[in-house]
Write a structure and sequence with these properties.
With about 650 residues, this protein is an all-alpha fold. The chain has 20 helices and 2 strands. Helix content is about 65%, strand content about 0%.
Length: about 650
């Protein structure tokens, strides 16, 4: 069994054992419930083997919500430890456990919460907005999701078997090299991210191809919705940046497993090269996350102000400018590393420059709202809260783009506050707006509005309580990654930050309550029109939820806001009655992604513990599954025209009541 022994299970750490025991008990209860209810055939047929982009998008978001709870539990541990560990008090987390917690928190929140959230939204929405029936490569879409789920499973196994990395969420060498981290923690980190990163790259290729090659008749680039433009920029960045991450991790793995010296302290290794490479991926990654959120806010603001997006062309230009400039700012992450004044000045100027197209977007949203008949729904709350919060985060980012200021603020809690300011205020707020906005399209009923506003206020107020004190603490000299501090004057601000984290926790709990209440009262909030918000883009022209084929016939598009234009032309209902329907081909369910994920987990776990026979078995399984998929010929099923017509008569678009 390689290095795997009973000593790998941390029986001597009660916090870990209680947490893992609770998670295991919940999983066993869920499995027992599914078995007793006889739901396995349904789950296998409708979800696990589905290649429908809508179901895959929902599964991505469900995975992200689960991991949000997991990652936020780490955040609560850190905040409570720092609220207690002042002066002579040492808190309740030993340093080696605390190091694992902050490493796991960053890794999970970026790779397994933020990424699945935005990829899930793009998966669900893009084909509907583009007026097409599915993504370009449906099976590849399923494979991408299940590889991401495999990475999630490996990260969570580290909670029970072995340990997680103590080298931070980006695993800088030489700390992550075998000399300083001889355990399996860094290996868990590397293999889980290699597997999930491959899934993300496949999704990026798939969605880019979908946008560039599959659009409704007449939909040119000028007619594409803004969310499609921001998704295009995001997925172009995935295709360009994730191979850098894969190659960088591969070199670090060669250092650890084969005695290479890419990033070691000796024999010609250069740890700074790793820092360059990881941030060549890392800063575009920030825009991979935030650009789809920008697209969500563009859709929300235009829909709920009842007018077209102001400055549409400038919005597209700003999006693509961010896409290009995001590759020219990575060195601002290590101004203090001695690159020299000229290099620092160039990257400082580029960092300030990239704030310009972002500012253009904010003004476009404000001018869209100005003079509109605004409906203050939950998505609009998130949008306005985003604009206030993100502007503050952007200003602190521009401040740190000044190299002399960064020399003071680098590696302090000021940096942590800035990063959470833009990620929570941008990505999380954007995702929450998007989920609320498109939820009725996915499930056929709207979410509870009152509870949705409560969730927003918990996140909004909780964020300011949790992270504004960190700006002050950073200016006072508090550094990141500290498990204990001797200056007791910092403790009151730490307690305020803890209170903010508790308020965010309440917001997460209320999200669960909101889902439960909305499901229980779904008949009262049923979306019978397919267009509950009086939307402007093509997804609202389909029933809620849409059929597997999305569109009975592909809608012709001649201008922006295609569905809005259709609604202005009365008589669509009469046209619908005269329509003739054709047989539609949709992709058949496929278990390839699930089986690939199973063998990828076996391969990754075996490599982590040096179980070479298990690694060989996992690799063989991956190859066999890929060969079986390559020889499949039954990739599609037919939906007869009569079935399409019957569905359309029953669920066809009705006049909007908004």
């Amino acid at each position: 069994m390689g290095r795997l022994t009973w000593a790998a299970i941390p029986f001597d750490q009660p916090v870990v054992m209680i947490a893992s025991g609770t998670v295991g008990f919940v999983i066993l209860c869920v499995l027992a419930l599914v078995t007793v209810k006889g739901w396995w055939p349904y789950l296998w047929r409708e979800w696990i083997t589905s290649v429908d982009h809508k179901r895959i998008g929902v599964m991505y978001i469900g995975l992200a919500l689960l991991m949000l709870v997991r990652g936020f539990s780490d955040a609560m541990l850190m905040r409570s430890q720092l609220a207690l560990a002042a002066g002579h008090a040492q808190g309740y987390l030993p340093p080696e456990h605390y190091d694992q917690i902050f490493s796991a928190h960053g890794t999970i929140m970026i790779f397994f919460v933020a990424m699945p959230f935005v990829i899930g939204l793009m998966n669900f929405v893009l084909p509907l907005q583009l007026g097409v029936r599915d993504v370009a490569f449906p099976v590849l879409n399923s494979v991408g999701f299940w590889l991401s789920a495999a990475g999630v499973l490996l990260v969570n196994v580290s909670l029970v078997v072995g340990e997680f990395s103590r080298a931070g969420w980006l695993a800088y060498p030489p700390l992550s090299e075998i000399a300083y981290s001889p355990g399996v923690g860094v290996d868990y980190y590397l293999w889980s991210l290699q597997i999930s990163g491959l899934g993300t790259l496949l999704s990026g290729i798939n969605l880019t191809t979908t946008i560039l090659k599959l659009r409704a008749p007449g939909m040119g680039y000028r007619q594409m919705p803004i969310f499609c433009w921001t998704a295009l920029a995001s997925n172009l960045l995935i295709v360009a940046a994730f191979p850098i991450l894969t190659a960088t991790f591969a070199m670090l793995l060669l250092d650890r497993y084969c005695g290479f010296h890419f990033f070691t302290n000796d024999l010609g290794g250069n740890p700074m090269m790793y820092v360059n490479l990881i941030w060549c991926w890392g800063h575009p990654e920030v825009y991979i996350l935030i650009l789809p959120a920008f697209g969500v806010f563009s859709e929300v603001v235009a829909t709920f102000s009842g007018k077209p997006l102001f400055g549409r062309r400038s919005m597209v230009m700003a999006t693509m400018a961010i896409c290009v400039l995001s590759f020219l700012v990575w060195l601002h992450h290590f101004f203090t590393m001695g690159a020299g004044a000229d290099v620092n000045a160039f990257f400082g100027v580029m960092t300030m420059l990239i704030a310009v197209p972002t500012g253009v977007k904010v003004f476009n949203w404000l001018f869209t709202l100005y003079g509109g008949r605004i409906r203050f729904t939950v998505p609009v709350y998130w949008a306005i809260g985003f604009m206030v919060t993100f502007v503050i985060g952007g200003m602190t980012g521009v401040l740190m783009a000044i190299p002399p200021a960064d020399f003071v603020l680098h590696n302090s809690l000021f940096l942590i506050a800035h990063f959470h300011n833009v990620i929570i205020g941008g990505v999380v707020f954007g995702v929450m707006a998007g989920i609320t906005y498109w939820f009725p399209k996915a499930f056929g009923f709207t979410l509870n509005e009152r509870l949705g506003k409560s969730v927003f206020w918990c996140w909004f107020i909780g964020f300011y309580l949790a992270f504004m004190p960190l700006y002050v603490l950073g200016l006072m000299g508090a550094t990141r990654r500290m498990q204990h501090y001797s200056n007791t004057h910092w403790q009151p601000l730490m307690l305020v930050a803890m209170a903010g984290a508790l308020l965010i926790l309440l917001g997460i709990a209320l999200t669960g309550v909101q889902l439960a209440v909305s499901i229980r009262r779904r008949e009262l909030n049923r979306d019978v029109t397919g267009d509950p918000w009086n939307g402007r883009t093509l997804e609202w022209s389909t029933p809620s939820p849409p059929p597997a084929w999305n569109f009975s016939d592909l809608p012709p598009v001649g201008r922006e806001d295609a569905f809005w234009a259709m609604k202005q032309q009365r008589g669509t209902a009469q046209d619908r009655k005269k329509r003739t329907y054709e047989t539609i081909h949709i992709p058949r369910n496929n278990p390839t992604g699930f089986f690939l994920a199973f063998f990828a987990v076996l391969l990754g776990f075996s490599l982590i513990w040096r179980i070479w026979w298990g690694a060989g078995l996992g690799l063989l399984g991956v190859l066999v599954v890929c060969l079986m998929q390559a020889w499949r010929t039954d990739g599609e099923i037919e939906v007869p025209a009569e079935k399409v017509a019957a569905f359309e008569r029953l669920h066809g678009l009705k006049e909007s009541v908004v």
